[in-house]
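Regression test case RT-17, inverse folding.

Input:
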């Protein structure tokens, strides 16, 4: 494949001493040669920074690489945008320091996104690895066939409103569009839901039929604490994204998809006893004219502030 476009991989590490070297090696070993690597250590308290420094010394002659070290941790979206401003690439990858890329991920992704010149990003399948070592694909069974149909139907924005459908570590962004749209929203605690929604509301996206990333699930990962008991940092951000979607929506079917998402998030907010977030979701559901027994039960649950989060922890 002709390599005329530079790819910038932004790798952000936070207490990833067990995995960061593997993540960095995976960038070096990509069969796509025209790439640069920007590393940021977000105030790690373990040995991540030292491992990064040694890796850069060893490999700085093999690819363009820069390393940035924060003395204190700052919000992820803000840090990513700082690194995005340094990026020279035509395409951008957001790589977590605890994941790694398979060797052909960049070449296959770039080949696919070039086929749709105005697309905002390309995404693919991923291997999801549990702490016990069990591994499975992100997409199950016939989901890939269904996915292809949804992407081609150009109604993917509506699909992403109702449920998470993309393994975010696999995404390769078109740099010009990502920067034009302001990068990640720095008021949010996490990035993927919001940026995928904002981009798919304006631009086509494409799916590449390959497994591109090895993603680790562990107790310290951000996604593992999405519905953290009492103190979820992510639920308030999810609510703000849902409010944005309410403003962006242009059709009844999109509002119905949002109502489905809001009720889903409300359920988990109640189960995890994040009652302040639950109140916001109830108000938004009312604006969307939510009805039915399920919603009435949720409102009673919120009014009573019934805390059974101990059971939720056991079940999840």
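Golden output:
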């Amino acid at each position: 494949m002709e390599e005329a476009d530079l790819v910038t991989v932004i790798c952000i590490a936070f207490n990833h001493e067990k995995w960061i070297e593997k993540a960095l090696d995976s960038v070096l070993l990509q069969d796509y040669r025209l790439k640069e690597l920007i590393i940021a250590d977000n105030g790690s308290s373990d040995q991540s920074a030292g491992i990064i420094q040694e890796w850069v010394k060893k490999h700085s002659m093999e690819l363009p690489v820069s390393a940035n070290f924060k003395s204190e941790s700052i919000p992820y979206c803000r840090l990513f945008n700082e690194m995005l401003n340094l990026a020279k690439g035509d395409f951008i990858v957001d790589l977590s320091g605890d994941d790694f890329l398979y060797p052909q991920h960049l070449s296959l992704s770039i080949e696919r996104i070039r086929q749709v010149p105005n697309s905002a990003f390309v995404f693919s399948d991923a291997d999801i690895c549990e702490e016990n070592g069990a591994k499975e694909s992100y997409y199950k069974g016939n989901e890939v066939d269904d996915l292809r149909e949804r992407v081609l139907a150009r109604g993917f924005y509506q699909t992403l409103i109702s449920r998470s459908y993309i393994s975010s570590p696999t995404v390769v962004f078109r740099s010009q569009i990502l920067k034009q749209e302001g990068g990640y929203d720095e008021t949010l605690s996490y990035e993927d839901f919001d940026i995928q929604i904002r981009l798919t509301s304006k631009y086509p996206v494409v799916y590449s039929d390959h497994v591109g990333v090895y993603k680790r699930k562990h107790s310290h990962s951000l996604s593992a604490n999405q519905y953290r008991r009492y103190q979820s940092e992510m639920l308030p951000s999810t609510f703000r994204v849902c409010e944005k979607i309410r403003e962006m929506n242009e059709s009844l079917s999109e509002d119905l998809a949002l109502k489905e998402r809001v009720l889903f998030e409300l359920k988990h907010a109640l189960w995890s006893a994040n009652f302040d977030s639950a109140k916001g979701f109830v108000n938004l559901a009312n604006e969307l004219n939510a009805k039915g027994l399920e919603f009435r039960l949720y409102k009673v649950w919120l009014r009573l502030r019934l805390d059974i989060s101990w059971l939720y922890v056991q079940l999840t």
